[in-house]
Specification:
Blueprint: H1 21-34, E1 39-40, E2 44-45, E3 50-56, E4 59-67, E5 72-73, H2 88-101, E6 103-104, E7 109-111, E8 116-123, E9 126-134, E10 140-141, H3 144-152
Antiparallel strand pairs: 1-3, 2-3, 3-4, 4-5, 6-8, 7-8, 8-9, 9-10
């Protein structure tokens, strides 16, 4: 029997790590620079809501919850539930428009299990995206699970 396979997710590094405000600021600035290049993908239609994946360089960054009743995004963490029929192209175009109006907030949350910063992106008064950035604020971290979900739906 060979050596055991490495874990899919590494354990968070906690020994001697110091989180610095400068790294959070770098993460925020990186998302601010990347935001103009974010694009709405083909909506994923669920029985009770619609998710619109947001892409950067063919990788999903996060999803926007689209509310077919209002024609606007719903706040992060509160996907609308209801069986409103939504045209995919309508949802995609609206989220594309919302991304042009979105802004990066001047703060970042650290997520220890993932060892990364989560930078919030807002539209009007709603946070609509959490963009993950490496601990040192140097690179965007794709949402690999969402990227795979999009590929399963055949929309990437």
């Amino acid at each position: 029997m060979g050596a055991p396979l490495p874990p899919i997710r590494r354990e968070p590094y906690t020994g001697g790590r110091t989180l610095k405000p400068e790294d959070a600021e770098k993460a925020v600035e990186l998302v601010r620079e990347a935001l103009p290049f974010f694009r709405a993908g083909e909506p994923i239609l669920h029985p009770d809501h619609v998710d619109v994946p947001v892409f950067y360089l063919n990788f999903a960054i996060d999803r926007v919850h689209y509310d077919g009743t209002t024609g606007n995004p719903a706040p992060k963490g509160a996907p609308p539930h209801g069986s409103v029929a939504v045209a995919s192209e309508e949802a995609r175009e609206r989220v594309e428009s919302v991304l042009r109006e979105a802004r990066v907030l001047d703060a970042a949350e650290f997520r220890d299990p993932e060892d990364c910063w989560a930078v919030p992106v807002a539209w009007e008064s709603f946070i609509i995206l959490h963009v993950r950035v490496s601990r040192r604020g140097e690179e965007l971290i794709p949402d690999y699970g969402l990227t795979e979900e999009v590929r399963r739906h055949g929309t990437l």
